[in-house]
Write a structure and sequence with these properties.
By secondary structure, the protein is mostly beta strands. It is built from two helices and nine strands; from the N terminus they run H-E-E-E-E-E-H-E-E-E-E. The protein has an eight-stranded antiparallel beta barrel. The longest helix has 19 residues.
């Protein structure tokens, strides 16, 4: 699966560049994720993590353009403890990925762009901490998939010349792993519960080699 996705992305990008080789635009990207893992009983988007990297955007047709990025992205889950002792109920899961998102956008009036696409991620590190219930050591490399495929919805807004504000939502298309978890209401164990990455991303993007829209001069008033 990982090899086929990589080949697809390579062919897609090469074909776009062959048609638009002289018009590509670079992207410098920095921001953060707010994430949770559906299926682990640690609710709400409370895990903060870095999201940064670089990308390239290529005009495709009129107001349409394609974007491909290479990112370092920290996901996972977080549950705050409810009392101040060693059995406080806290939990933290770290899932760090290298990601390659590919998206297609429509731009309106050179100000706002809305897009959608897919992202393939390679899990490079995983670890967790749990204080409320003692659990045996787990080899997380055998629990979570090495690759994660996400569906993405994305919005970019120009805030100053080549600088854009970006808000992105992504969700795993397939499960990232299965874990035994304790139900937050009944306290009973749920065995082999399927888990999915679920996260929001907030970033700043600086566009390289993009010509910002010219400021329109007000109509001259007659003397």
């Amino acid at each position: 699966m990982k090899k086929s996705v990589t080949i697809f992305l390579f062919i897609l990008v090469v074909s776009i560049f062959q048609a638009n080789a002289q018009r590509f635009q670079g992207e410098l990207i920095a921001g953060m994720n707010k994430s949770q893992v559906d299926g682990d009983e640690a609710y709400r988007f409370k895990k903060y993590g870095l999201n940064f990297g670089a990308g390239v955007a290529v005009p495709v047709y009129k107001n349409w353009f394609a974007s491909m990025e290479l990112l370092y992205s920290e996901k996972g889950a977080y549950l705050k403890g409810y009392k101040n002792d060693t059995m406080d109920g806290s939990y933290r899961l770290h899932l760090n990925y290298l990601e390659v998102p590919v998206l297609f956008y429509y731009t309106d009036k050179e100000f706002i762009s809305a897009g959608a696409g897919l992202s393939w991620g390679n899990l490079i590190k995983a670890w967790e901490k749990e204080r409320r219930y003692a659990i045996p050591d787990v080899d997380l490399d055998t629990v979570y998939r090495k690759s994660d495929l996400n569906a993405i919805a994305d919005l970019r807004v120009r805030i100053y010349k080549n600088l854009k504000l970006n808000v992105r939502y992504a969700y795993s298309i397939r499960k990232i792993g299965e874990r035994d978890v304790r139900d937050s209401e009944s306290g009973q164990w749920i065995y082999n519960n399927k888990q999915y990455n679920n996260f929001w991303t907030f970033r700043l993007i600086y566009m390289i080699n993009e010509k910002p829209p010219a400021n329109k001069k007000p109509n001259a008033q007659p003397d």
